[in-house]
Write a structure and sequence with these properties.
Elements lengths: L4 H7 L6 H17 L5 H4 L7 H25 L6 H17 L7 H10 L4 H34 L9 H4 L1 H25 L1 H11 L9 H17 L5 H27 L6 H18 L10 H14 L3 H12 L1 H21 L2
Amino acid sequence: MDLDAKKILKTLNPRKVWVPVGLGLGIVLYLFLSDPTITADKINLIFDATYLPVLFAILVFFSRFAGYIFRIKSITKNELTWTSSLYVIVLWEFASAVTPSVVGGTAVAVFILWKEGIKPGKALGFVLLTAIFDNLFFVLAAPLTLFLGMDQVFPVVSKNSDLLESSMDILFFLSYGLITLYTMVMAFALLINPRLFKWVLIKITSTKLLKKWQYAAYKRGTEMILASEQLKGMGKKFWIYLSLSTIFIWSSRYLLLNFLMASFTRISVGEHVLIFGKQIILWVVMLISPTPGSSGTAEYFFPIFFREDLGDYTLIVNLLWRLFTYYPYLILGAIFLPRWIKRVFFNGK
């Protein structure tokens, strides 16, 4: 894996925040201007919010953040301090926010862990493992969601639905299939047989058409073997912490929207479960977004999924949802990055 500092810091450039911010706000503005029913009175509906659910939304926001910090500290066997863990998570989230969801911030995360004192092989193993478990959450939760509410988790298609809206189920199954395939391959390569994975990569790239990528395939395979070796001998406690913290992190993320929606409209227990399930479907679709941090894509798809639940409050909750789940990481990343660079490159730890 290329851990060249110049390339990594170019990816982490705070100036990049304007691209996703522009995309996200641009879509919100488009939705605002294209809806003839939106008036000044509807914008003032934001003051209808019940504050207790909003406080719970803030609580689960910080809980999720704490869950991320706890997970990275526990899986590294406390090689990271709490301060180092905080920097790792903030910058990792920032990297994910400024790179397309389909690309992710793997190389950046490995580089950050390396600069915080984790050996590159271990760092790669930890990053790949957390990515696999994050994806497994969707791979396992999505079928359960479909089983419990197949006829309700997808948007209602009407005569006025556009092509994208009416194709949401197709997009979901396409994205779900790709995520499942990727997750299973990576889990096999990292946890079961990395040498076979390397052999397959080299064989695939031995053809004339793919020959120029054979060296890269060889490097990826070697890295996978090294990363896999770092995870051998991890005890039961390690896997329990990893599993439970992953469930906690994603549940916290989804409950945030549940609380935001509950601050504007009454929601029954059954409806809370359905909203939670809809978010799993929405997130699976967003994972193949080509935009940085799914900016624009998330804002556009949100009303498709939740318009029926929120009515006049859709645009307001859409904006609040992204303000809680996306923009804080852009802001925190831009603040923490210069301090982290000074800390690891100049002042030491």
